[in-house]
Write a structure and sequence with these properties.
alpha+beta, 18-stranded mixed β-sheet, 14 helices, 46 strands
């Protein structure tokens, strides 16, 4: 009876399939252990290209999970996730068997089953508009779900991208396309019939209409997706204007979450219907889709045993699911090549979010209700500008954050090349902000009508978003700039040049740094807070626009593009005062703690500082004055006068720098700076250091872990000397020139770096090279190799101050964080810095001619490592000498706190020495910035 039913379903489906639309019929059986899927499949494929086809490309994307070295594995490593790289064989996904027959039931040769793209030769050339039928029998091993959210787990089995299907975005069937876990669609305009045979007591749900138990059929303009579980998942029916939309979930909902959704979903769907003109009959939301598309920034803040709530549970549900529902509707109904046209749907999602927030959360703050929390009766967060920033400002602020680091990318960058952050900040937020900006200028109803018409006209068709921009520009000439704007990184800056009162009017001068005719929104405000807004149209190839406003309006402040509504490169010049002491100038504001910048003011951050410098200065007590907020700036200054508790004297440091950040260049940043410092390097002995520097950081792919830079610096040093040092004619004043190149690649499995530098003064010149390689050969188990070489081109120095170190470094440039700069004994002298020779045993002496050394470090068990060092060095007038050492390293906090226990070396068996405790070394890095940088790898 079951076979008869299936046959009827197939016949019924064939009758419905219209011409020129592909059909795929699948009979799939999931094994009882949920690890194997057996598939019988028929593909009816039409030639959608304009030329004859001799091969048919089928996507075998389960093979992306099959082995190391696939594009999927590499992308996961870029995201700092090595689970798939180190997966066991039974955790991987693979195509186990495959048999393909053509329409004549003849077997077709298949290449390597581990290939993600199978190019199947056709018996005869397939002409445009004609169809070919293929019969497939195959068996696949499903991967663990932990890797991508698709596969099998103890809770359920999620199926997507595992069936072998044609690539509808490649009608010529010639290009390779690998699975990258980017939710890239491959199927559209396809009629599916899928019948499942699943384990007993299992339930199945998906994005295809279910026509009977475990059988699904219908058209999809997206890829089929199913979840098989041991329990059924909830369905919420939302009534919008008398029409029911079923929202099916691939996961369990908490009772309060379901209750909130039953209230919010009809409101959200009604809102979306009014904006885009349609609603689907049903939606299926998987747990992976929920995690990817939920609202960024509304989660509770957890710290130690405390949890601080920004938004109520109901608000979080509303914010999360509006974005989820919006993106799901767009994905299911707009056919777009995600690799090239990702920005269209991502931008529409952000645009609709902005509209939703304007209607329901217009006055809600970015931090929600968190600033209202009291501690000892006060609200400490109220002192921060962040507490006043609106939730709506998140879109412009996010773009600002990444743009000011020059790590943004152009909007139409290929999706696979976007960094994780730019997927949100550029493809979504920047594009959505531009859509909203255009809608604000032309009128929201007009813009929404254009969207509705465009989606309706192109229903069932692959869209070309360039046509949408063209339609937009025809409706409003002020949007013509968008096409070019999307094709490049932009640094548009509108500037309020000055405000001048003439007779009964205010003359306002606006300057822009682009030739494009981009409108700007000007807002005036009185002292009483009354606001008026004006749209100013600028001319192409004209940088200056003059505007006259009535002085009778009692204008106090003028603002351009208030609320970060346009992705500008600099908001700091968008504010001017028309009256008062600060007319035509910016006000100054003093702040205690680093904050989100308020572009209306010149902000100076004044914060107390307490830190341990070394055993001579001991704790430094002082205050830091700087202009750096949470966001980077081109011009930076920082001055930190301190009181040294160890000497009772004033010490301190200061620095000024300016960076050029070209948007489109091989250079990411060009920085010039000067700095100075005054501290102590011995008891009663101070040093003064002045530096002039320039550095170039080269452009990098934001997804890449590779960075390159060159630097040039001049340093002036002046040291206090004690009587012995004076008698030995030690260096009191000296100048150092340094020039170097650095390369680093901080990828997970194979981390490497290389540096080449030269340094000199009137008495010496040295050339130094260092290479480093670290291989993670098992989860959290690493082998490190370091090669160092140093050579004096000239050395006429008076002592060993500038020599290469063997086991201890000479900190003559005061560039290392040594707790005891001049310590020769005691615990402070045992601090280890991995530099120069890098030997952990106390091998006496320094090097004044040349040295090469090789350092090895390997994991053996948990935090325990073994190390070994070997090297050859030569001093002037002496024969070369070979040295070595070995021992055990304990990594208490990797790269920051590590302890070395020497065992065997050129000196002998060191644990047998009476003073062995004094031979133990340690690494201690007290640099919070380094820890933060290590933690944030992979996000950008």
């Amino acid at each position: 009876m079951k076979k008869i039913s299936i046959c009827l379903i197939l016949l019924f489906g064939v009758a419905q399939v219209s011409a020129q639309k592909d059909s795929i019929y699948i009979q799939a059986k999931l094994s009882s252990d949920r690890k194997t899927l057996e598939v019988s499949q028929e593909i009816v494929y039409y030639n959608h290209s304009d030329k004859d086809l001799h091969t048919l490309k089928l996507l075998n994307w389960v093979s992306a999970y099959n082995k190391r070295g696939t594009s999927l594995v590499y992308r996961k490593l870029e995201d700092r996730n090595s689970d798939l790289h180190f997966a066991k064989s039974d955790q991987l996904g693979k195509l186990l068997e495959l048999d393909i027959k053509n329409s004549d039931h003849q077997s077709v040769a298949v290449g390597n089953l581990s290939d993600e793209n199978l190019f199947i030769p056709l018996k005869e050339a397939l002409q445009p508009g004609k169809a070919v039928t293929m019969q497939l029998q195959y068996r696949i091993q499903l991967p663990d779900k932990q890797f991508t959210g698709y596969g099998t787990s103890a809770r359920n089995t999620a199926l997507k991208y595992f069936f072998i299907v044609p690539d509808h975005f490649d009608p010529d069937n010639i290009s390779q396309k690998n699975y990258l876990d980017t939710e890239e669609p491959v199927s559209f305009n396809t009629f599916w019939t899928i019948n499942f045979d699943i384990p007993v007591s299992s339930f199945i749900e998906g994005n295809l209409p279910q026509i009977q138990m475990n059988s699904f059929q219908g058209y999809l303009d997206s890829d089929p997706e199913f979840v098989i579980s041991t329990n059924s998942y909830p369905i919420i029916k939302a009534d919008v204007d008398g029409t029911i939309t079923d929202i099916k979930f691939g996961y369990n909902l908490r009772p309060e979450e379901k209750e909130n959704l039953e209230f919010y979903l009809p409101l959200q769907l009604k809102f979306l219907k009014d904006k885009i003109g349609f609603l689907p009959n049903s939606l299926f939301i998987s747990d992976k889709f929920r995690e990817k598309e939920d609202f960024f920034g509304n989660n509770d803040i957890a710290f130690w045993k405390f949890r601080f709530q920004l938004f109520t549970d109901a608000e979080k549900t509303d914010l999360d699911y509006f974005g989820i529902i919006t993106k799901k509707i767009l994905d299911e109904n707009i056919i777009a090549d995600k690799e090239k046209d990702h920005w269209f749907k991502n931008g529409l999602k952000s645009y609709l979010e902005i509209q939703y927030l304007k209607k329901f959360y217009n006055d809600t703050k970015l931090l929600g209700s968190l600033p209202e929390n009291k501690i000892f009766g006060i609200k400490p967060l109220k002192i921060f500008h962040a507490s006043k920033v609106k939730l709506l400002d998140r879109y412009g602020l996010t773009y600002q954050y990444i743009m000011l680091q020059n790590l943004d990318q152009k909007i139409d960058e290929n999706f696979s090349s976007l960094s994780n952050f730019n997927d949100m900040a550029i493809s979504g937020f920047e594009t959505g902000s531009l859509f909203n900006y255009s809608a604000d200028k032309m009128g929201y109803d007009k813009f929404n009508t254009i969207i509705k018409n465009y989606i309706t006209i192109h229903s069932g068709q692959k869209i070309n978003p360039e046509e949408f921009l063209k339609d937009l520009s025809e409706k409003d000439k002020n949007t013509r700039y968008l096409t070019d704007f999307f094709r490049q990184k932009n640094r548009v800056d509108f500037k309020l040049k000055h405000i001048k009162k003439e007779n009964d009017s205010l003359q306002i001068k606006i300057v822009k740094n682009t030739d494009a005719a981009i409108p700007v929104k000007l807002e005036t405000q009185t002292r009483e807070g009354d606001k008026k807004a004006y749209w100013i149209e600028t001319e192409e190839n004209q940088s200056i626009t003059n505007l006259s406003l009535p002085a009778s309006d009692n204008i106090y402040k003028v603002t351009l593009n208030s609320g970060y509504i346009f992705p500008e490169s600099n908001y700091r010049d968008n504010f001017l005062y028309a009256k008062g002491l600060f007319s035509n100038a910016k006000k100054i504001k003093l702040k205690l703690i680093k904050d989100i910048p308020n572009p209306e003011y010149n902000e100076i951050y004044i914060s107390p500082r307490v830190r341990f410098n070394n055993t001579y200065d001991k704790f430094l007590l002082g205050v830091n004055l700087k202009n750096q907020s949470f966001f980077d700036q081109k011009f930076l200054y920082s001055f930190t006068p301190t009181y040294s508790t160890g000497t009772g004297q004033l010490t301190g440091s200061g620095a000024i720098s300016y960076s050029f950040l070209p948007a489109e260049s091989i250079i990411r940043s060009l920085t010039f700076g000067v700095s100075g410092a005054y501290f102590h390097y011995d008891y009663g002995l101070a040093y003064r250091k002045g530096t002039v520097l320039s550095s170039i950081s080269f452009r990098k792919n934001p997804r890449s872990t590779v960075s390159r830079s060159i630097g040039l610096s001049y340093n002036y040093f002046e040291r206090d000397l004690n009587p012995v040092m004076i008698a030995n004619d030690d260096y009191k004043k000296y100048n150092l020139w340094s020039f170097g190149y650095g390369y680093s690649d901080s990828q997970m499995i194979h981390e490497k770096s290389f540096s080449l530098s030269t340094q000199g003064m009137e008495d010496f010149n040295k050339l130094t090279a260092e290479g480093f390689y670290r291989w993670e050969f098992a989860p959290k188990q690493k082998l490190s190799l370091r090669l160092f070489a140093g050579y004096f081109i000239k050395n006429n120095t008076r002592n060993d101050l500038f020599n290469y170190g063997i086991s201890r470094v000479s900190n003559y440039a005061f560039s290392y964080s040594l707790l005891g700069e001049s310590a020769n004994s005691g615990i402070l002298s045992q601090q280890f810095i991995l530099a120069d020779g890098g030997f952990k045993s106390f091998i006496p002496g320094t090097v004044n001619q040349w040295i090469t050394s090789f350092n090895v470090d390997s994991s053996i068990w948990k935090i325990f490592h073994v190390y070994a060092d070997a090297g050859l060095y030569k001093n002037q007038g002496r024969d070369p000498k070979f040295i070595w050492d070995s021992g055990i390293k304990v990594r208490i906090i990797p790269d920051f706190l590590e302890v070395y226990f020497p065992v065997q070396s050129s000196l002998g068996f060191e644990p047998g020495f009476k003073d062995y405790a004094k031979r133990i070394r340690y690494t201690l890095v007290l640099n919070l910035g380094s820890i933060i940088n290590a933690a944030r790898r992979g996000w950008y």
